[in-house]
What does this fold into?
Amino acid sequence: MAARRNVGRSLPKTLTDEQLDALLARPNLGCPTGLRNRVILQVLWRCGLRASEACGVHLRDIDWKVGEIRIRAEVAKGGREAVSYLDPSTQEWLDRWKLERRRYAAGAPWLFCTLKGGQLDRRYIWEMVSRYARKAGIDEPVWPHRLRHTYATTLLGEGFNIEEVRRLMRHARLETTAVYLEVRDKDLREKVRRRG
It folds into this structure.
């Protein structure tokens, strides 16, 4: 029996480079919540974290020397502990927030805490991403998971193979990740068009 394609299933929506730049420019870095929110956007986009995972990360979950975030089983989707790796730019943003959060954390374990040291709610992240997207002039809805989709297609564009992307996305099945190959078809089209 032939394998069926996901008939009727829409492709994941991603952000263009221009949309992403506009979104990342929205937080006001002159205030602590703006810096925190900018770092959250960075982690959603460059680490592929889900909103609930970002809310649940503790400061101790970051291995600053190695450059990775441990996603504990109680926070991770599917209840499986995982690791997400930090690129140098993301680690710089996290270092910057780590210094700022000391003034507000008051012993709170959460990496992304409120200014009173409380845990952020994932609804806050959803609303924050949506609000910044509207202010950035992005006409279509943008939710945190769209940044995760953008992470996957960015990895493919940077030359990571599909198995590496599956592992970085923490998907159990390759078929789940393969849908991002279809999103990258426009790049394939452009490669063909550039041929002699």
The mean pLDDT is 88.
